[in-house]
Each structure stands twice: as C-alpha cells, then as structure tokens.
Model the fold of this input.
Amino acid sequence: MSDLETILTSFKNGTLDLKTARTAIDARFFEDVGHTTIDHDRIRRTGSAEVIYAEHKTPTQVVDAFAALAARGENVLATRVSSEGFRAIAERFTGAEYHTAARLVTLQQKAVDPAATSIAVVTAGTSDLPVAEEAALTAEFYGNPVLRIRDVGVAGIHRLLARADEIRSAQVVIAVAGMEGALPSAVGGLVDKPVIAVPTSVGYGASFGGITALLSMLNSCASGVSVVNIDNGFGAGYLASMINRL
Amino acid sequence: MSDLETILTSFKNGTLDLKTARTAIDARFFEDVGHTTIDHDRIRRTGSAEVIYAEHKTPTQVVDAFAALAARGENVLATRVSSEGFRAIAERFTGAEYHTAARLVTLQQKAVDPAATSIAVVTAGTSDLPVAEEAALTAEFYGNPVLRIRDVGVAGIHRLLARADEIRSAQVVIAVAGMEGALPSAVGGLVDKPVIAVPTSVGYGASFGGITALLSMLNSCASGVSVVNIDNGFGAGYLASMINRL
Amino acid sequence: MSDLETILTSFKNGTLDLKTARTAIDARFFEDVGHTTIDHDRIRRTGSAEVIYAEHKTPTQVVDAFAALAARGENVLATRVSSEGFRAIAERFTGAEYHTAARLVTLQQKAVDPAATSIAVVTAGTSDLPVAEEAALTAEFYGNPVLRIRDVGVAGIHRLLARADEIRSAQVVIAVAGMEGALPSAVGGLVDKPVIAVPTSVGYGASFGGITALLSMLNSCASGVSVVNIDNGFGAGYLASMINRL
Amino acid sequence: MSDLETILTSFKNGTLDLKTARTAIDARFFEDVGHTTIDHDRIRRTGSAEVIYAEHKTPTQVVDAFAALAARGENVLATRVSSEGFRAIAERFTGAEYHTAARLVTLQQKAVDPAATSIAVVTAGTSDLPVAEEAALTAEFYGNPVLRIRDVGVAGIHRLLARADEIRSAQVVIAVAGMEGALPSAVGGLVDKPVIAVPTSVGYGASFGGITALLSMLNSCASGVSVVNIDNGFGAGYLASMINRL
Amino acid sequence: MSDLETILTSFKNGTLDLKTARTAIDARFFEDVGHTTIDHDRIRRTGSAEVIYAEHKTPTQVVDAFAALAARGENVLATRVSSEGFRAIAERFTGAEYHTAARLVTLQQKAVDPAATSIAVVTAGTSDLPVAEEAALTAEFYGNPVLRIRDVGVAGIHRLLARADEIRSAQVVIAVAGMEGALPSAVGGLVDKPVIAVPTSVGYGASFGGITALLSMLNSCASGVSVVNIDNGFGAGYLASMINRL
Amino acid sequence: MSDLETILTSFKNGTLDLKTARTAIDARFFEDVGHTTIDHDRIRRTGSAEVIYAEHKTPTQVVDAFAALAARGENVLATRVSSEGFRAIAERFTGAEYHTAARLVTLQQKAVDPAATSIAVVTAGTSDLPVAEEAALTAEFYGNPVLRIRDVGVAGIHRLLARADEIRSAQVVIAVAGMEGALPSAVGGLVDKPVIAVPTSVGYGASFGGITALLSMLNSCASGVSVVNIDNGFGAGYLASMINRL
Amino acid sequence: MSDLETILTSFKNGTLDLKTARTAIDARFFEDVGHTTIDHDRIRRTGSAEVIYAEHKTPTQVVDAFAALAARGENVLATRVSSEGFRAIAERFTGAEYHTAARLVTLQQKAVDPAATSIAVVTAGTSDLPVAEEAALTAEFYGNPVLRIRDVGVAGIHRLLARADEIRSAQVVIAVAGMEGALPSAVGGLVDKPVIAVPTSVGYGASFGGITALLSMLNSCASGVSVVNIDNGFGAGYLASMINRL
Amino acid sequence: MSDLETILTSFKNGTLDLKTARTAIDARFFEDVGHTTIDHDRIRRTGSAEVIYAEHKTPTQVVDAFAALAARGENVLATRVSSEGFRAIAERFTGAEYHTAARLVTLQQKAVDPAATSIAVVTAGTSDLPVAEEAALTAEFYGNPVLRIRDVGVAGIHRLLARADEIRSAQVVIAVAGMEGALPSAVGGLVDKPVIAVPTSVGYGASFGGITALLSMLNSCASGVSVVNIDNGFGAGYLASMINRL
Done:
C-alpha cells in the first residue's frame, strides 16, 4: 500500500492539490478507455494480465482488446477464438499462433520464467482432447512444463494405474473427462497432489452437455479434488499454474 | 397357448356354453377380489409371484396382501416394510423374518431350487449397505448364492482390483454406489458379465438424493452396464436372479 | 492368472531381468501407441474388443482407430458414424458396411460363433427405428439371432399382446420407446426374461429429448427391467448379447 | 346478460340513481366480506359454487369459509382437510362427513340432480387410491355415478383389458397412476371417451414426487388424453363431472 | 363384442377350424403389413382412424402411411408435415390440402357429420397462432364448428372479458398461450365448460421453450382446466372434438 | 371513470339506445381489427402504447402491427427485430431507425417530454452490451437521460467503486450481467436507488443460457433489487422509465 | 464525499498523522465488532440501516444483532423470526412487537416521516397472506401508507377489475401469488405504476414450492413488472418503499 | 516402487514362494477387516490417513472406524458427527474434542508439523459460519495457521476491500457463501492466490439449497477459482492444506 502513502505524503507536501489527490487515489486502479475499462491494477492484485474471452465478442472487439494488451508488451492469450477471429488477429499480429483444436490464440512477446515443477493433464478419452489442450496450452503459456496423459478413462483402469508414478511426479493434476466424469475420483485416490477436475460436454443423452460429469466431479469421494466450469480448460490451466508457482 | 385350445374345444364339444367360454377366456388371467386384483397369470407370464411394495401402504393393506400370497403356499417377499408393518405381519406369520437394514420381510414356506452360479454384490461405501443388502437378500430369496464385496469405491481403486478375480467368478454383478456413482464403470471395465448399476441416495449437496449417481451410471463409458432406479436394491436383485437363472 | 505366474517363473529362472519383468507385468494390460492407449487386456477382462464411438471424433481419428483394430484381424464395429466418416473408412476398407439409419459401420473379417437363443428387439413406433436398429445390428454383430417386433406401442396394446408368444421365445428383450416410454413396463409384465429398456429422444415439448421416456422406464412398475442411456441402442445390443451368451 | 339490461333500464326509469347503477353493475359479480372476497358470480359464470382448498389455511379460516358457503344452503365441499380441520368443522356442522383417505369433507344440504351417464375412475395401484378417491368422491358430490376400477396397472395389462368393456360404458374416464404413469396411455388406446390423467406422487427415487408420471402422461401417444396437476384428484373429478353433464 | 361371438359360433358350427378361429380372434385387432402395424381395431376402440405424426419420419414413410389410410376411403390427417413432406404427398394425392402455418395436411374423401355445438379456440398472442390453428383445423377436420378468438392475453384483460359471452356459447374451450400461460386460468374463471389448456413454446429466457406456460397451466387455480403437451394443438383439437360429440 | 357516466347519461337522455349503450361500454376498451385485437384502452390504463415484440412473428405481421400503431401518430418501438424484419419496415417507414446490436426499431413521430432525472445502465462485460443497449435505448425512447457505465464486473471491483458517485446520481439503476450475475448485488450495496437486475444469456457450460445469472440475482443479499427475464433489456428499460417518471 | 475531504485536510493540517488518516479513511465504512462486521456506511450508501434476517441464526445471534442496532437509536426490523426468537428479543426489548403470520419483529424508537403516496399490496389467495403481510408491514415500517387488496386471483377476474381504481391510486403495486402466479400479469395490464411481483411457495404438485409462480412472473407479458425471490415479502416491501419515496 | 522390487527379489532368492509373492504384491495395498476394507496404502498414495464421514453411518459404525484409525496412533478426524455420535466416541476416547457448530470431532495423538504459510477463510454471512468453521478446523487439524475473515459479503463490498491486504497475506483462500454466492468472484479479483469456493445451503426460495451459489461460483468471471460441493467445508480445508503444504 505504499502508493497510497506516496499520494498522501505528496498531498501533504503540497505537491498534489486536493482534486488531484482524489483522482490519484482512484487512478491507481483502472482507466476508462471508451468501450472497455482497462484494469491496470490487475497484475498487482492477481499476478497476471487480462485474458481475452472471445466467445460472445465480434472480431473487431477481439482485435481491439488484443491490440490494447499487446501494446503493453505483455504476452497475450485469447480463448475460444473462431477461425474468423484468428484471421482478424493474424492480419495485425504476425507472431500470433492459433492452436486449432483448443481454439486458443497466443502471442509471445517476452520470455516467461519457467516453473521448476510440472503439471499433469490427464484425459479420459480422445473426444476430451480439445478441452485438455486448452488447459495444457494455458499452463504452458504461463511457463509450466506439462505432462500429457491421454485416453486413460476408468473403464480400462489399468491404463491409468500404469501411469500413476508419472502422474505423481507432477505438482498439480488436471483431470479432464466427459460422460460419467469418474476420472478425477480415480486420480484423486492415487496422488497426494491437488486435482483440478474439468467436466467436458462430451457425451449424449443423459450427459446433458456436461452436467452429469460436473455433478459427478462435485460429489467425488476422493479428497483434494475441486471443480471448474464445464469445458473450462483455460480456468483449470490458469489455476494449476497459480498453484504450481506458489 | 394350450389353455385357449382347451376352452375352444370344450366350447365346441358343448361342454362350455357361450357365456362360460367367454368368462373362461378372461379368467385365465386374473381375479378381482375386492380392493386388489390378483394377477393369477403372473407366474406363467413372468416366472414369479407378486412382491409386496409396502412403502405407501397401510399396515392393514400390507398384511392383507401378505396373507393372500401366503395362503397360496408361496414364499413371500415384502420390501420397504417399516418396523410397524413388520410387527403387524409377525403377529400372524411367526415364520416371517425381518432384515432390519434392508427393511425386507421374507417368509419361506417351501424350498427354492438353488442356482448353479452366483451373483456378486459390490458396494462402494459403508453407507450404501442397506441398498446393497436389499439386492443381496432378494437374490438369495430367489435361490441365488451371493458374493458380497464391500467398501471398494473408486477413490481406493486397488481395493477393487484385488478382488477382481472373485468378482469375475460371478455370473452377474450388482454394483451399488452413491455420491459420484463411478463404481459400475470401473467394475464394467474389469468383467465380462452383465453389470446392474444401483444408484443410492447417499451423499449431500449436489448429489441431489441420488440423481448424480444415477446420471453417472447411465453415462458409463463401460459396456455391459444397465441401471435401475435410485435405491432400487430389490429391482437389481430380482433382475440379477432372472439373468442368473436363464 | 497364469500369465503372471509365467512372468514370475521366467524372472526366477533368470530368463527375465528385473526391469523386463516389471515391464512385462504392466504390458499384459495395454500399450501406448501415440494419441491412443490401446487396451490389449480388454478382451481378456470383458470378453470383447473395443468399439469405436465416432460422435465427437474427426474422420481421421475414426479411421486411425478403425485401422488399428482391423489390423488385429478382429471384426470391427463403429457407432454414430456420419456419412463423411463412412466415406473415409470405405476408402481403406472395401468390406466395411454402412447401416444408414442406425449410423453403424461394421467390418466382418472372421466368422462369429452363432448364439443358440435369440434376442427380441421390440419398438414402440416407426420413429424409434434408428435406435432399435442400432441395438439389433449390434446384437447381430456379436452373433445373436434377432427378432424384430415393430410398431407395437401401448396406445394399441392388442398389437403387443398378439405377439407376446413370439417375444417370449427370446432369451432377452430390448424394448425401445420415446415419448412416454411405457413399452418396457408392458413388455416386462408379459415375459419372464430380462428387459433392457432404451429411451429414445423421439417426441416434442415435455418429452425433453428423451428425459421423460428415461424417467418413465426407471420407474417401471414391472420387475426385470433395467435401463440404458437415451438413444443408446449399442449399449442395449451389447448387453443383450452378453446376457444371451452367458 | 339480462341483469345488465335490467340495471340499465331501471337507471333510465329513474328507479336507480347514477351511483347506485354503478354499484349495481359491480355488485353482480362479488362482495367483499372482510378477509375473503366472495365470488357471487361464480355459479353463473362457471356453473358451481366455490370449493374450499384447505391445505395452507388455518382451521379457523377453513371453518369460516365453510360456514359462509353453508349459510347459502349449498352443498359444501372442502379438500385436503386435516383431521384437526375436520374436527373444527364437525363441531359446527354435524352433517359434515369426513372421507379419511381422500381427506375430503362434504356437507349435503340439498339433493343433486343425478347424471344420466357415469364416470370411470381407473387406478394403477393400491397406493394411488387416496388420490383416486378424491376424484371419485368429487364426481359423486356433483351427482355422477362412479365406476371404480382398481389395481389395473400396465405391468399386468390383462387385468385392464378384461375390464375394457366396463370402462367403455362410462362417458368420461379418470386414470390415476404414479411411478411411470403409463396407465392413461393404455386406457386411451382402449376407449373412445375423454381420458383425464392424474399423476400421483407415489414412487421413489427418480419418480421425483410425481414428476415422472406427470411427464409421461403429457407425452402420451394415445389421443384424447389431458392431464391435471400431481395428486389433483379434485380437479379431475370436477372436470369429469363438467364433461359428463354437458 | 358381437364379433367374438360370431367367431365362436362359426367355430362351433364347424365353419371355422381351430387355427382359423385363433387367427380370427387376433385379426379383429390389427394386421402386420411390413414396417407398420396397422391398427384396424382403432376405430372400434377409440372412435377414429389413425393420424400420422410426421415429425420424425422420412417423406417416404409419411407417404406410405398416408396412402395406406387413404386406400380405406377415410379422411386422412397428418400433423407436423414439412413442406418437403407435403410435396411428396401432393404428387400422389391431388386433393390433399396443406395448412402452412399449422403444418397440417388434410385429405377429405367423404363428408363428416357436423357437430351441433361449437368449440372455441382462444389465443393469447399472435405468436401462438400456429398452434391454435393446429387445434382449430383438427377440430374442423372432425366436423366441429370452430369459433376463433385471437389476441386476448391477460395483460389486456378487457379484450377477453368483452368476448366472454361468445366464448360461453361454445361447448368446449381450447385456450392457447405461451410465456406465462395465464390465459386458461382467466378463461376457466369465466365459463362453465371444460377448458383444454395448450402451452406453446413461444417466449424467451426463462420461458424454457414452453415449460413455464405448461407449469402455470397445471397449477391453474381455476377448476375445469386440463392440460396437453407443449405445442400439442392436435391433441387439444382431437380431445375437444371427442368431448363436443359425446 | 367519467366515460362510463357519459354513456350512462346519454343512454338515460335517449341519445343512446340500449344496444348502443352496451356496445359503447365495451368499446371504451378495445377494437377487433382482424388478426389483431387493438387495445385502445392501454394508454389510459398503463400510460403507454403497445410495443411490438417481433421474435415469433412474420415480417408481414410485424409491418402490419407497426403500421397500425404508426397510423395513430404515436412513436413506435419494436423489439427483437431481425434485419429482414427491419428491411420490411424501412420500405414503408423511411424514418424508422434500426439499432443493430440491440435489434430495436424506433420511429419517432413526435417529441417526448424529457425526464428530469436519469437512469444508469451498468454492464458487467462487453458481451452483455446488446442487452444493455436494448435497455438503454428503450429508456431513451421514453424520454429518459441515460448514463452508460460499461465493463465494471465484480472481478475487478475497483472499476465499479470508482464510478459509484456517478451511479448514485441516477434515480434508477439497471444492472446487466451474465455468467455468475453478481453485479446487481454489488451495485445494490452501493446505492439507495432501485436496482433492476437483467440476467443475460452470456456464458457457457453451467451458465445454462442465463439461468445461473437469473438465480444469482433473485437471491441477491442486497436490498432494493428486483429481476426481469433473461435478456429482457426492454422490460428493464420500460420499468426504469416508469419509475423515473413517477 | 465531504468526509474524505475533511480527513485529507486534517491530515494536511497535521491534526491527523499518516496511520490515523489511513484508518480514518477505512473507518468511514465499517467496524469489526467480533463475530459481526457492522456496516456503518450502509445508511449513507443505501439510505437505511441493516435488517436482521433471522432464518439461519441462533436466538443469541439474533438478539445480539438486534441489540447492536437498537443501541444506535434506530427503529429495528427483523424478518423470519421464530416464536422462540421473539421471546428472546422480548425479554430485553419490551417495546418489540411480533407480527405472527408474517414472522416479523419491529421495534419503533423514533417517528418515521410518512410518505405522501401509498403502496398497494394485492394478494391472489388467502394462503398467500403471510407473505403479503411481510411486504405490507415492511412498507409500513418505512413509513408508507399501505392499501391491502385481498383474494382477487385471476380465476375470478371481476373481483380484481372492481378494485382497479383503488389499485391505480397507489404509486407502487406489490402483487403476491402462488400456484400459477398469474396475478401480476393481470395487474400489470391495469395500472401505469411499477408492479413488484412476489411468488409464494403456496401450491402443491407441479408448483414446486413456488418455482412455477416465479417462472410465470418472470415471463409476464405485461410491462412494468419485476420479480423478487420466492416468499420474499420483505424484499418487495423494501423496494416498494424505496420507489415510493424517490 | 522399491516394495515391488523387494518382493520380486525375495521371490527370486527363494525367500518367498509363488503364492506368497502374489499375495504380497496385493497386500501392499489394503486389508479386508470384516465390514470395512482398510486402505493401508492411502498415506503412501495420497499423503494422509482416512477421514470418517459420519453422515449416513450408525454410531456403532462411526465408533468402530474411529477406533481402527486411533489404534494406529494417528490423529483422527470425523466430519458431520451428530451429538449422539460424539457421545458414543467420547465414552471411549476422552481426548476427543467436539466442535459443535461445525459438527467435527478431532482426536490429536501426536504433534503436526506446522505449515509456514497460512490459509484465509473468508465468509459472506453469519449463517455461513458452520461451513466455514468446518473448513477452518480441518485446515488447522492438518497444521495450517488459519486467518478468519467474517461477514464480508458483496452487498457491503467495502468491508471486504478493507481486509484485502490481510487476505493477500495468505497462501490459499477459502471463500464461503450462500444465497447468490458472489463472494469468490470478488475475492478472486483481489488476490493472486488460489481461491477455493464453497457454496452453502444458506438461503431460501430460489437458492434451492445451495444450487444457486454453486452455479454462480462455477461461472465466476474471476480466474483462479475452483469449487467444491455444497456445504463441503471439509473438502475445502483439506485441499487448501494440500496446496499450502506443497
């Protein structure tokens, strides 16, 4: 909170007048730049810059946000980007990369300090891979080594057990599954690390677009499991990175 | 269909008049005895006598139904019987037995031909035992040897694996679980026998009285799994017996 | 469990060194071949090879999986295959057959031992036929004679009754219905065989894409009925085959 | 509409002044008597007097309403009356009768013109009888002969078929069922009369307090079926009477 | 039931042999003609021929069913027919008529005896008209005069009141509404005739495709109201006709 | 109520005959002009003319309604208008304006008396802007100054706090948010003015098309908050105007 | 914002040191007094003191909170108070009053400035009165005249119309209804004032504890209607007061 | 994996025979001791001993499990213990402590190594304290310093902001809230540490026993937030400890 003290001291010194002091107290936090309110304070508060969620935005809105963040020299991450959206970004940012299955766009402008320990991304089935990749690429964007363990759903439990030691080598585990969503429970019973469960919308009939997997994960009988929204690979990757870098 | 032929032939012979022939065609099937319509034809059609579901019935209604079935010399099974209900039965039928946890009442009046193969009842947790016992006792009522495998939920998957050979020795498997309901998927991946999944209402919060386990089981990624209603141990035991005795 | 004994004995003999013994213990179970983890152990554990669920997969992923299974000389079954998916398969496997309504692809490479008893597939309405065919063709893929009984929904109950003897001639019954899903209850009251109920997404308004039929079937007042997921014809056919071949 | 003409004419004649005319126009409809607004116009509009729904009311409120209606010489009907509620009524109205299972109270003060045709009340199981009785007694309260057909659920369809001719003799059919709620579909396929379906809250697990039966009935594949609220025996009986007396 | 007597008598006379008698007993009811089971008995049982529900059927299936019914000289009604479906029908049946908004096809081949009393179809808003027309045209198909009262939702209650006398002139009322579905309650409070409530899928957000209207109608505080499935104009029209012609 | 008195007096005078008097009593309220029932009385009763909800209507229906209202010289507002719908309107009404994002069409034919105080429209994220604009433009259509505060969701709460004084300057606040819908609670804790919460369908997975935001808002722990339907920007703007002009 | 200026000026003057200045900036807002964080700033921000929601609290917690607020000389309002809770309050505050049906406790310690205009509380049925009284008493607690209109549900719409002028005399209308919740739509079509809709949990079966009424109100086709939580009479009364005193 | 090597080597040496080797391979994992299957391997796999979930168990079952764990010298934790359950424990374990509000029982038999960093437990309202205490006491049981921040819900957001620096001092944050569940979003926007969101069942009406808070938290617009089951304070405390001690 030294900033506030600086402002107060400057005000006392007469360097700042009353009105300027009040504005400065506010301005530590954000700035209104037209249709968007840039949250300058976010890095200080939460440790990382904003990420663009492109789903409900027009290509123009996405590119504008992308440019605003790129201009500050940061690495930029955009999620749920359509191929149209990426074409619009690529016209202005030749270094931007599109990860098709995961629908992520990344722009690396500066090196990230690599984490010392790794994150495991464990996936139940092939159909869950797009969400798993969103998680894995997000974790990599923030500098974490990622260990990918694929196609080890509980209906063939030996596949999972055979890789238990590998999974235990990670500091955090992301478990991605659709249908009955049982993977995080099985993983949670094998490791002594936090498990972030990601339900996917993979399935049909009474899977209800991921609700079944979500409910299953929330009711996991294994300890150390928490859950993010359906298909929220980004959220899992971000949280895993945060834990891995504590 | 020889019965119908007999009636038709008797009618042709003049042994039966028209009205009697029509009544006889109907009477092959059932008889109206006041507040209940006894289904005489049920054993012929489905292979076993009626079972009394006592949940929404008064003690008097339960005892009346019990007596009607006992009078025919059959073994009698009543499910969801309260302790009050059992006391009412026990006053008239000293041989009736009450299985407290499962809330079943059985009356054995004649020997049942034992099945050659057994049924495994696999349970996720201690809290699921009342439902598992309803299934196991029902299977035993119909003459099936039962193998009880308890407390082998997926959060400690090695407990289940260690008993895989035992489970594989059964002809049919009943898998009982609440919370996230993942057990049937794991079992289904281990055996080449039909798995009857029974969701239980054990859990809290987003388990919604068994809905989560039910949905999870319906979406099982393992093949050979089918599902009965929440807490329907009787239904599972009955079906398992039917399959085991094919 | 002789395999494990062989490995242990070879290890004791010195035929296997420690590292190889450990790998061999694992390798009895599965093999990691890139983006897929092939479950070699599945036939031993569950009695049949993997089936390809094509719904959420790219044509390439489907063909790759198809090829991997075909290479082992097995008959191959793929479900929920789009016409694009089939074209991709057909380019490489001229013997592959597409069952349009059911969206199944089958490749028969060796004869299947025919089952001695048959499976009845009973359908409520014409609109339920695609799901019923998925069940029937799956049962036939595994070598079971199938008896198809169509268009016998409960609103014209005499149609069902007239065919009761035929249905009773089967060892297992699959009952397929959408809308109010009452068919399995009626069938379950007529036969002394296991009834596998398949709710379909046929209907409108408060049928909620099959939820009503699903709930109705789970609450069936007939005994011997169990339920699979909405539109899961494959699951029903597979389970019916498993029971029919016990 | 002659009343309005009378008022207008009287007003023109000078028999009524302006204020009185306006009040009289309103007063054709209702009267505010403290905590209740008596709907005098209801008989004219809908053909019968108000019925007391006692569920959420205090005994005092119930008795007050009962007295208000009784004072006008009408026959009085109160539904969902607790035994406490009935005791309060019985203290003041010795002729009031309590139908325990159905929780109805009736007070007959004058003869009802009997209907020429009858109403059939068809019930799936013994546990559904309280709701069925609410329907049957309501129909009788309004002067309709009632034919009670009990315990003819679809799991023993021959019981229902055997009584088809009886059911067809009625002018309107009320079909009462819990669990999977399939009875109205079967009945609707047998008769050429309107079928009023009443779902009951009988069941457990995925019956969800009657929701399954309700949904099943709304999706009936039989024509001529409409549905009332869960456990709404009164509503069915009232509507059946209205149709029967058209 | 004279048919059965005729068969039995003929059998006794020796006119029919045993096998033929059994077949004849069955054949009173239906006939299996390939992919469809024609329900010959339906007119006797329920008073009218089958109606084709075209939603989930292929054009070929629809035309086949249409032809089968037309061949018997009956008037034919098909619901939920797409424009493609109608073109296929029109190629073979030049007299077939398409009611675009309601998506009904009718073919009149013989005169229908007109009903003496009329049916009112009351609609809340312009957007509900397609469903209302399905109901009205169905009622007319069965020979009932129909009174259409449009755009009288409860948010402008005087519009409804002004037409109360008209509505009361009908023998049965169909009330069609989406959104909050309040119209049937208001109508039910105005008339002494059965009200058939039809919820429509008109609305947005928390209208949930008609669920809100459906629930609202099931909970109507007015007596004499029953409900059919969401958007089920046909069902309402059919039932109204059945009641109107009792 | 002077109108009624005038009619009554005229009738007494003989200026009106009986039939005309009755018609005049009705006609104060509405007029049936074919497929629509125009609610003349609406301005008197509710203070403003009808608004056209175009979602489920054909372009022709929309234009007809638009013309009917425009002909009376009123300003006209249509919501949820597709671009096709607008083109149809624009052909006849050159002054009609299309607000693309909000999908509103407005036609200003006369000046509106401006309100003295303003309405704040506070929005959580960029994706919520279309709904927010529907609210803001509706409020402006009825003559209210509107203060737009964008992109101030609770995950960056300082952005909201910094603008608290601005928000407090308004007389009514509309708070628009999707996802977890927390904005109205935060706003409600900052101001002493009514807060109208508008949930939007923005989000994915367990946001369920706005249900989560809706439920969140209904459970707001802040006082002074009420809620309208999902995406109902118009309803919020209309209500805000009504309150602002009291 | 003068407070902040005072602190800053005092700090500049040297009257306040740095630490005290920072504490003072914070302390304008709240104070931590053990298990509760008193929100001193609430009156400034939102115009009224805290209200005690007693539902999930122990009597001790309720009395402590009551005492804390009473000590500041304010009038105190507590909602959802059990009779046990009230006895605990009454021991210490003899002036506290218990409104039994509404379960409110009020303590008036100083006069409230009466509002110039009134609030109408319109109730559908007798069973909804407790919630309506919670709303009415809350409105009176904040000094608003309240007009109570009872028992005017839409099934007897004339009762409502007859009182339309009375309702129109109020500045804000609260409409309270359970079951199908149609009252607010009818009221909203009659008045040009904001309507606050309160769904109640009155009903049975498919009323789902008030969900049906809630959904119905959210989908109201009348403009000017917003909704609060089920049974939230307090919220409606508070908001109505806020609007009435703008 | 040294254990497996030891067994294999011993077997090679002849120290172990074949059968014993196989048993030993299994026995590394668990032991069947009657009605419970003790998971010896759990500490190795997941880092901590089993915890007793007492909700659905009889006092005898709880005490047995408690004794089994206590006998191994570990500290014991039991959750959801009724006062009856505690009395049964206390009879045998005088050192066991009951935390009434949280319903936890703890038995400390040996010192726990204290964590270097702390966990913040932030609570929205007084009614959420029991769940928050379950989380806090669990975290303390595992040796973590806990910082309790109470009564800082978003409706008085300044209370939360004032304590932001304190919250930021923790390594992990648990945010506990019922009703609209907005607290985790606000907290997540303030800190750069993982936030574990715990929805509680506190609320009424449309809070649906915690579903609203759960959904709200799953849809949080803040990054770094994950969710556990409704009222699952234990799960949050356990996971927080796991993260804090990485």
Observations:
- The first strand of chain B starts at residue 31 and ends at 32.
- Residues 129-141 of chain B form the longest helix (13 residues).
